[in-house]
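Hi C.,

You asked whether I'd gotten around to modeling the 314-residue construct. I have! Everything is below, sequence then structure, no commentary in between.
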Amino acid sequence: MNRSELLEAIDKKYQAMGQDPDVHLSGLLHSEPMKYWDFIQVDALLGLQTKRTQLPDEMVFIMYHQINELLFKMVIWEMSQISHTENITPKKFEMHLMRISRYFDMLSNSFDIMSEGMEIEQYMKFRDTLTPASGFQSAQYRKIEIASTELINLIDYRYRKTIDKNTAYEYAFENMYWQVAGIDHKTGKKNKLMENFEEKYKNELIEWMKEYNKINLWSKFKELPKEHQKNTDLINAMRHYDHTVNINWVMHHYDAAAKYLDHGKVKAEATGGSDWHKYMHPKYQKRIFFPELWNAEELNNWGITNLGGYHKIL
């Protein structure tokens, strides 16, 4: 596009908006050129790390989790483009799913940064200053799960028969699988981890549940024309995402936790006080976003054999 064509396009753009193109061109004339550090907000980003102890490896722990939250935000951004696109094509659906899977592949492969990047002795000291905080309290991760599948697939495995499409959102929330980690097994009451989490995020997450009730990834897939639901590239993308999040990423997380919490004679609890083995390991809760895309053997062995790694449907 040459200069005259560019100016003509600018005129049309701003006239369509009811704006004077000359005013915007004048603003461009007097504006400062963009700089990398301003665009990325580097100073603000690098000022977000606040240690609570004098232990050096705490900085690794903080920055690692902040990176996770940024990647979660990228995941939600891609999910929104699937969920809020009407009459989405299999190609577009697959494209965004594979972007999401690559983000989670990055998350899975990054656990060595933390597991090999912190001395066990340092971690076991500074973790006490985190109580009762826990990665469990990542609201963005809960949003990812809710936007991925129908709520029934996130209900604690023992209570799924009490849930149907007419169940109140509040009741469904109270029976989500993660509630297991929020109950003090000694008293049967919600622990401080859960109380803090619900005080800040419960209403927000219930609204999120309502928004994605019919536009989560699994519902969007099942609304596609039948011929599109048979698209092998899309099916493989769905299976890849499901396996990556609910087995691969979870097990990398599980193994990293085990290095620190199972290293001594006395096994440590998670920072929130949960029985993290049963909460995290996929074989217990069988978190599966797209259950109908897996065969009976794969479902029965979910999280036990690691399905031999992800494999494609031909």
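If it helps when you're writing up: The CA atoms of residues 125 and 263 lie 14 Å apart.

Thanks,
B.
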